[in-house]
């Protein structure tokens, strides 16, 4: 069965086309991305701007067409923090349904956390024991812990890299005092979730998922993506601290020149690194394993578990 997964995130819209069957390993066939930065295309009232909504409609329609021509039997389309938190979320969703012919399913923060944890569990298997997963997106930070496929504890906090960049950093590069203030604020925000997560027990495996953690690991010496999914990649707390001292003195343009850093992510890199550092510090984590699977794979796996039927759900517009 060929599936399309359309992910409308805070930074990008991503279409992943996979061949999948129940009990098998989802095989990626193609990947298409567009940078929309919806989290930044919001006005003072927290509404997605007309320009942002226009680009979302256009991109969604284009990617739905790609899914059809790629032979997808179904398109699973979902949106996360940027659309979820927008004051005009329902109006934007109606435009996408009406003009692009696609119904976006808005995931809650807890849904994001639990589906990402499912993907991590399937990647590492039961022998991994209790897993602690950290996932940094553009709008939110997800923290999960558990020994099964569904985590015992799941947090979604509004501590995404894009959100914090927009709210905290006005200078480029950011000033030292501002970085210090953000560190203190993050420590306060993470204190209670970290206390509850730590009280649940000791993790046997600590994991980082999604683009921010992959980029941070690459900048601290992990293998590039060209080495393949199954190469073990790690991020250490000490390596992360050294990296922050380096990148926090660089401009956005200079960070975009670093190997493994995309131009659309370079602006958010410092804030993402600070969230990663604060999360690891709060939870007492010295080393993270970097998992190549995250939310999209979790959605695919849940779909395969529950329903292998269905027909193409993309309307013609």
Automatic annotation (TrEMBL):
Family of the protein in this entry: Belongs to the GppA/Ppx family.
A Pfam family matched in the record: Ppx-GppA
Record keywords: Hydrolase
Presence of the UniProt keyword Hydrolase in the record: yes
Stored InterPro entries: ATPase_NBD (IPR043129), GppA/Ppx_hydrolase (IPR050273), Ppx_GppA_N (IPR003695)
Coiled coil: none
Enzyme Commission number(s): 3.6.1.11
Annotated GO MF terms: exopolyphosphatase activity
Residue intervals of the Ppx/GppA phosphatase N-terminal domain: 17-305
Protein name in UniProt: Exopolyphosphatase 1
Reaction catalysed by this enzyme: [phosphate](n) + H2O = [phosphate](n-1) + phosphate + H(+)
Hydrolase among keywords: yes
Enzyme superclass (EC): hydrolase
Domain of life: Bacteria
């Amino acid at each position: 069965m060929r599936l399309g997964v359309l992910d409308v995130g805070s930074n990008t819209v991503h279409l992943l086309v996979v061949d999948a069957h129940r009990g098998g390993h989802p095989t990626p066939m193609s990947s298409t991305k567009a940078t929309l930065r919806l989290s930044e295309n919001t006005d003072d009232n927290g509404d997605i701007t007309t320009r942002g909504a226009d680009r979302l409609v256009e991109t969604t329609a284009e990617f739905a067409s790609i899914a059809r021509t790629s032979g997808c039997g179904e398109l699973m389309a979902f949106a996360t923090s940027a659309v979820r938190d927008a004051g005009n979320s329902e109006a934007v969703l109606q435009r996408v349904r009406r003009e692009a012919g696609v119904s976006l399913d808005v995931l809650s923060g807890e849904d994001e956390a639990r589906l990402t944890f499912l993907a991590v569990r399937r990647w590492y298997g039961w022998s991994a024991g209790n897993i602690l997963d950290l996932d940094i997106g553009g709008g939110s930070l997800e923290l999960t812990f558990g020994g099964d496929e569904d985590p015992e504890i799941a947090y979604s906090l509004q501590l995404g890299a894009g959100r914090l960049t927009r709210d905290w950093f006005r200078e480029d590069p950011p000033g030292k005092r501002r970085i210090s203030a953000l560190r203190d604020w993050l420590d306060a925000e993470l204190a209670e979730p970290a206390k509850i997560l730590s009280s649940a027990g000791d993790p046997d495996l600590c994991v980082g998922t999604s683009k921010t953690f992959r980029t941070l690991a690459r900048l601290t010496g992990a293998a590039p993506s060209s080495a393949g999914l199954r190469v073990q990649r790690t991020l250490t707390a000490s390596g992360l601290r050294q990296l922050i001292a380096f990148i926090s003195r660089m401009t956005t343009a200079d960070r975009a020149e670093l190997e493994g850093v995309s131009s659309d992510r370079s602006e958010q890199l410092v804030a993402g690194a600070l969230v990663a550092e604060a999360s690891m510090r709060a939870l007492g984590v010295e080393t993270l394993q970097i998992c190549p699977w995250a939310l999209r794979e979790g959605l695919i796996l849940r779909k395969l578990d529950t329903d292998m039927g269905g027909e193409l759900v993309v309307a013609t517009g």
